[in-house]
Design brief:
Elements: H1 2-25, H2 37-63, H3 68-93, H4 102-128
Helix pairs in contact: 2-4, 3-4
């Protein structure tokens, strides 16, 4: 009986401690705390634009060390990747079609996928330089 009572007393304390720890470890999301949905969507779009600017830098840096044949292959793969990225993010955000969150979800997807592609291009640059 004492064990049950002790568990009943300790359980809420353990729960609150675990919740506080999870709150500390939760990373801050980009655009968190934006006032309205329109502001959050604008912030998400800026996140995507910044990611796209980094992608362009990585692409141009890599293209700068490639021969003509490799540049043509890179361009072909990049065009195919852009089609994939755009259609994938439209699909990902389609569950919010007609809602005010859809543009934000699409922009976050574009930013996330673009950052991943930037990392791939940077890796290719490092392998080839």
């Amino acid at each position: 009986m004492r064990r049950i009572a002790l568990c009943a007393l300790l359980f809420p304390i353990l729960l609150s401690t675990a919740g506080a720890q999870a709150q500390k470890e939760r990373p801050i999301q980009p655009c968190e705390g934006q006032g309205s949905q329109a502001e959050a969507s604008g912030c998400a779009h800026r996140e995507y634009l910044a990611a796209d600017a980094e992608l362009n830098k990585a692409y141009n840096r890599l293209a700068g060390i490639l021969n003509a044949e490799e540049k043509a292959l890179l361009k072909e793969s990049e065009l195919a990747w852009i089609k994939y990225r755009d259609s994938n993010c439209v699909f990902e955000s389609s569950q919010y079609a007609g809602g005010t969150m859809r543009p934000m979800i699409e922009s976050f997807c574009l930013a996330r996928v673009t950052k991943a592609r930037t990392a791939e291009l940077k890796e290719q640059y490092e392998l080839r330089k």
